[in-house]
Amino acid sequence: MKRVPISQVIPNPTNPRIIKDDKFKKLVKSIEEFPQMLELRPIVVDSNMVVLGGNMRLKACIAAGLKEVPIIVADQLTDEQKGEFIIKDNVGFGEWDWDVLANEWDVDKLTDWGLDIPIEQDDETYTTKVVSPIYQQTGEKPKTESLCLLGRYYALVDKIEASNIEEAKKLFLKLAATRHIKFDYRQIAEYYAHEEAEMQELMEESALVIIDYDKAIELGFVELFDTFETLTQLDE
After folding, report:
1. What is the model's pLDDT at position 228?
2. Cβ(113)–Cβ(33) under 8 Å?
3. What is the set of domains in the chain, with CATH numbers?
4. Apex CA 116: angle with CA 114 and CA 118, to 5°?
5. Best exposed site among 51, 164, 202, 231 by fewest CB in 10 Å?
6. Could you tell me what percent of the chain has a pLDDT over 70?
């Protein structure tokens, strides 16, 4: 392990792990309050100084104003091993024992450290309690064009339009092509929180967000199975 100027460390543009908004702010705060943590868990880089493990820690260190960071150079890995390391370094194994956390740890501190604490833990194996999500603004309003990916859809539509098949068949295939539209529901939730009531209602009607579960069931977006209904009766 050695310390280097932070400007020498190169963020990995292909790292799939990101931390946003409040969690990122908590990571920055934890580094400011407990910088020794970085000595115990240095950023891992390859021979080109590109990050393999600790991409978000590097970003948080930059935000915290650090001039140097501790690193470990892993210069003996193949390209395949580098890719494997990036994924495995970000995989969380195991589960939290919520009883131990509740009895032995300060919940407020756990939250400050970035751990998501369930609002309510139920001892029952099954429950009929449903908690509706609360959509609150956490950042800037996303642009409308960022809410879904249309590249594959447009490519198929262009191909269908250029074909020599009859119009009725073209219409059918263009409708089928909509299956290739990918929606970014994180962005959609943020967008919903910024919108006016009329737009929110239309988004709910389209099941882009679900606020009222009874309404979602009525519209056919959520289905109650017989087994669930049986459990409901037993729980009453």
Report:
1. 46
2. no
3. 2-89 (3.90.1530.10), 144-235 (no CATH)
4. 155
5. 164
6. 74
